[in-house]
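Known limitations

Files may contain more than one protein. Parsers should not assume a single record per file. Below, a two-record file is shown to illustrate correct handling: read the sequence, read the token line, then continue until end of file.
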Amino acid sequence: MTVLVAVGLTAGAVSTLPGRADASEVPKEARANRSEELREVFFVGNNWEGTADVINSRGDYAKIGRIDMIPDKKERLWEIYLDPVKLAFFLGIRLGPGEGHDQYVDDMYTTKDGRSVIASRPSFADVVSIDVASGKINWRFPVSGFRSDHMAVSPDGTQVAVSASTSNTVHVLDMATGKEAGRFTAGDKPHENVYTDGGKYLWNMAIGEVNTDLDAPWQDFTKGDRRITVADAMTFQVKKVIDMRERLDAFGRKDLSDALRPVAFTPDESKMYFQVSFFNGFVEYDVHTDKITRVRTLPKNPDTSDDRTTYVNDSRHHGMSMSPRGDKLCIAGTMDDYVTVVNRESLQEGPLVTASKPYWATVSGDGKHCVVSESGTDRVTAIDFATGEKVTSIPVGDHPQRVRLGHVPTDWTGPTTS
């Protein structure tokens, strides 16, 4: 299967550079058709706060505006409090993946016209479209089950896919209306979504159960069915299932978890890099031969505990992106409190740039920097791909997680109403 990562924050703004973990860059044809009235920006999802900071996508990364992503909070909470089952899951999210906090904004993508931002809201188990000018909700889609998670946008900008993590379902929604176009069943706790092959296929990576303390290697069987599910993006029929457990075992790494976290493809689509639970490093997978080819262990922070139950949602390293030329990988060492740029040919890491619980890694609008969210200090930090050194860091809201490229009107400074 030939693959091409094609996911863009601005719907329809699809990457011709599949090596980027969030694939949020814009191809030439999309740039040619884009309105001159749009401004490229980053959306930073402040998960615990329920806001999205909008910042410059290059240069000084200065803050432009902020959007309240939960303007209907009172209404949603009333619904939850009146339903004992919903309340139980709501509190479970707070005590589990939320680390004692509610999860209000996970993933975000803007529409082609830059007028709306689409967001998944885990604690509210939904996806919403919010008008960036008024701050009001255009539409809302409650997912099946009790938690929404990672999303992806189709290359033509018409559909958005979202993982419903407690129902093992991937919903595909119409971007304009929020109506469901289709769905398919994935593994346990579906997580990352990636459109491939120019939008022909939709890949989903299931991470399994990550909120228990059954984290010893011999307890791995309790984590559930962790697999890659590849579905036809038009018919939503499952075309292929990839079990990385078999591939890792064949490579001699039975010690590694097969729960895939963030992924990145090379520009020629021949290789995929991915992080797995509990591991301070990453894996190289040859797409065409369907085999693991290399595994790279990255340095351990001496202050990082060996107690796997202390890792946030089983993550050791969580967040990776690739330079536009495909020669560098940027790795967020979440529990080891650093970011490093890795030479893809040699797999040699560069300087270890200190960062507090970096959670996500993406690429700046000009392709020069790796941009990470420091969830431990509420900052967004840029690292130079060429030197591996820190460029700048700016403050954002409470617990930034996903950082996505998008667009807003050129004169936009924030919603006119809350």
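...continuing to the second record:
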Amino acid sequence: MTTSTRGAGKAPAVLVLEDGRIFRGRAYGAVGATFGEAVFSTGMTGYQETLTDPSYHRQVVVMTAPHVGNTGVNDEDMESKKIWVSGYVVRDPARVPSSWRSRRTLDDELDAQGVVGISGIDTRALTRHLRERGAMRVGIFSGDAIQDDAALLARVQEAPEMKGADLSAEVATTEAYVVPAIGEKKFTVAAVDLGIKGMTPHRMAERGIEVHVLPATATVEDVYAVNPDGVFFSNGPGDPSTADHPVSVMQGVLERGTPLFGICFGNQILGRALGFGTFKLKYGHRGINQPVQDRTTGKVEVTAHNHGFAVDAPLDKVSDTPYGRAEVSHVCLNDNVVEGLQLLDKPAFSVQYHPEAAAGPHDAAYLFDRFVSLMEGQRA
């Protein structure tokens, strides 16, 4: 929810949290007003991929790294066709980018896409506030949008909450498209786009998979119209408790026994499809340095995260579901949040984090190979 004008310059800016705390700084990007959920990202790099990740739709991202914009903006690292964050918060924006790949400054890119931001505030204090009190609604106001503090706070408190938000259809493709396999085609995958990142079908294409990306509104019939060897459910924004349609489609896939893989929102969809609940985390996991243990191997991975909701499934036992036995396959070592699920009697699994890792470490890239192995096993 943004209103903006071009030309941020050095206009005054104000950040107002829904609990009344206020930070004052300077405009960064477009000048105007914007609203969303205040969340923080702990990544020290990869800001361009963060900005263009559709999972950040309707969120105001606070960067914990103090220096942002150092490498400018290029035309290669976009995860989608536009910036999706509703606002951006940085401490010390780079004055001049330094990278041979840079085509323009981050400030100019935010301005050109109408993204209202703020710089020059104590992002460490803001992050500590969100850690203690939880993610909450926020507004950024600059230039003529600035009013007295009470009026700004009232506007923030009138903004919609993330809990109960159904957003995946707002960011997903409206038309199906195909990402061809790189080299020899080995498999066909139907990918339900709930906010998919561009690197995800690319990682599958690298493994000889032709990916048919389908809208979030795709039906079971649409999925099987492409004659898939496997089905994928992507990441995406919003509250998984609202995602009744994707849940019903996934249940149709589980009934047919087609190999299934889900990432992030797709993990939450699998949780719901199996009969587990979901819940909102206090402040979520966002960044590229989160430790996760693969409980099937004991290996610990450093992983990329972007989620504010999680699956409520038991960590200490195998659960009976309508589709056979299921267990928690991955867990976050910081807080024991469920980071992955797998079925023991059908070829289906999911993870809450981002093995495509754009940006981020590549520790979890093997999960795409695991998906390939499921499809090979089904074919055999």
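Parsers that stop after the first record will miss the second one. For reference, the second record is described as follows. The longest strand covers residues 277-294.
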